[in-house]
Amino acid sequence: MNLINEKISNDLKSWPFVEAKVLIERLKNNKSYDHINDDNPVLFETGYGPSGLPHIGTFGEVARTAMVQNAFYNLTGKATKLICFSDDMDGFRKVPENVPNQTMLREHLEKPLTDVPDPFKKFDSFGSYNNNKLKEFLDKFCFDYQFISSTECYKTGQFNDALSKILLNYDKIKNVIIPTLGEERKKTYSPFLPICSHTGKVLQANVIDINVVKNSIKYFSPISNQEEEVSILNGNCKLQWKCDWAMRWYALGVDYEMAGKDLSESVILSTKILNILGGFQPAGFSYELFLDGNGQKISKSKGNGLSIEEWLTYGTEESLSLFMFNNPKRAKKLYFDVIPKTIDEYFSFLSKYHSNDEREYDNPVWHIHKSNPPKDIFPVSFNLLLNLSSVCNADNANDLWSYITNYIPELKKGLNKKFDMLVDLSINYYKERVLPFKNFRLPSETETKSIVSLITYLKDLNNEVSSEEIQSIVFKVGKENGYENLREWFSCLYETALGQSSGPRIGGFIKLYGINKTIELLENVINGNLVK
Fold first, then answer.
1. Is 416 in a helix, a strand, or coil?
2. DSSP labels for 418-487?
3. Which of 127, 239, 455, 470 could, after both became Cys, cross-link 113 (CB 3.0–4.6 A)?
4. 321 with 349: CB under 8 angstroms?
5. What share of the chain is helix, strand, coil (3-state, %, to 5)?
């Protein structure tokens, strides 16, 4: 039974629904659609390489995939399953810059990640430590997923049948990859990477012969300087990346997996290998990568960009999910300044969702909350709280609550835990991301005249005036004082009264801060009391 009727579904345009519709067509084309049930669910996969600490891009891939999964279920009512696959048998190629015990880690380069000691000394390997960090934050966001370890799949024999089929098609698969390699690499390429029995390292070895009957390969060992034979089964060999990806799709029966734009070529080559194995290409799309504040790609080894922990120090879980929802095919900078804007965007979408009599399936909050958005109402924006914190030099939440309850008498501390959290987050953001960078300037002669005019108007107002009426007065003062571009007038107020280049909607801020307190603030601006 469809949870969204067909008439409505045809008009849905948000990208998770678009992706879900593509997946439906894929399943119908390979004739597996009618056989979907609890024992044979549609399989959504996300991949993680635990060569470094999980970063926010990893979360983004899981969050986005879960949104497509939810959209698919609501269109079809059919069983689904999300797996998070860790490529933890991959060779450890580079020591991350953001972990301890660097010297020790260098001694274990090229070993499978689950054989590299944990530099934090908490788990039995570096791979296990990173896997647990991954599960930790996925659980925090209440994802419904199954974690799968590459090491476990290889060593328990779960991949054995697929590995045998790779060996049977050895030359065909080599012919897919070799044209993409440099001349030197072409001479030694093999889909199979033996695990060295002497060092435990994943070897880029020259394979001399294969034996499909014994399921083994013979290679020249750079360690022993002689030929050695090894089984390809039960974790004695690891597949090269592109072949490994195709094998995983085939062995697990993956129906949907998205990937970063940097893996576009890998998707093409892995699909060709999957076709050789007789599998059917998963649906999925290529998403753009996140960039740090300098426009550089976020890297696990560098640890640049925001971490999940940093976002949640200053922002809500829902705002992080919204950031992942917005424009996945566009490269976006991921740095601190996007947090306040995204928080307020989330509350705007939430308010819009509940103000509409009909369900807005394309509204981001529908996807973020798995089709059941909460009814939380937030009458004060995060940006307003930030600027109130700034003007009050707030040290803790109590410094703000007298203003908040004066602005909205029925809103008391402790009645709305979500809003209480927002107040606390605004204090965190102000103290660590605003206060160190505040830079007040003196107003010019023309600006001083405009500020004096604004003070005169404010003195004629009572406390019952609305924020919209105050906003109109601020506009009026700007026009009366010759500002052709009113942005210059608002910039003047932000830079002289708040010590920052941008700020809140002025009418709402004055209403929240209070007319008399605003007059006092503006008088301090004129007298130069805010400039150090």
1. coil
2. HHHHHHHHHHHHIIIIIGGG-------HHHHHHHHHHHHHHHT--TT--HHHHHHHHHHHHHHTT-SSHH
3. 127
4. no
5. 50, 10, 40
| 3-class secondary-structure state, position 42 | strand
Place of tokens 């992706």: 19
Least confident of 193-197, 309-313, 343-347, 474-478: 309-313
Structure tokens at 216: 């083994």
Query: What is the number of other CB atoms lying within 10 angstroms of the CB of residue 203?
Result: 24
Task: Report the distance separating Cα 78 and Cα 76, nearest Å.
Answer: 5
Mean pLDDT over all residues of the chain?
93
- Is the pLDDT at 317 greater than 80? The verdict is yes
Q: Copy the structure tokens of residue 296.
A: 């550089």
Dump the DSSP string for 106-149.
HTTTTSBGGGSPPTTSSSSSHHHHHHHHHHHHHHHTT---EEEE
Distance (Å, whole) CA 474 – CA 117: 63
CA dihedral 48, 50, 51, 56 (to 10 degrees): 60
Residue 202 near residue 91, CB atoms below 8 Å: yes
Predicted local confidence at residue 300, as pLDDT = 53
Please state, in angstroms and as integers, the Cα–Cα distance from residue 117 to each residue in 49, 281, 461, following that order. Answer: 16, 36, 68
- CA–CA gap between residue 403 and residue 422 (Å, rounded): 15
Strands, sheet with 216-221, edge to edge from the N-terminal-most edge strand: 206-211, 216-221, 226-231
Phi and psi angles of residue 93, each rounded to the nearest 5 degrees, phi first? -95, -25
- In tens, the pLDDT along 413-437 reads 888 888 999 999 999 999 999 999 9
Q: Annotate 132-170 with b (16+ C-beta within 10 A) or e (fewer).
A: ebbbebbeeeebebebbbbbbbbbeeebbebbebbbebb
Residue showing tokens 């005249």: 449
Structure-token pair, residue 35? 């056989």
Q: Which two tokens stand for residue 109?
A: 């380069």
**62's tokens:** 């899981």
Distance CA 46, CA 63 (A): 10
| Mean pLDDT of the 169-188 span | 94
DSSP string covering 516-532: HHHHHHHHHHHTTTT--
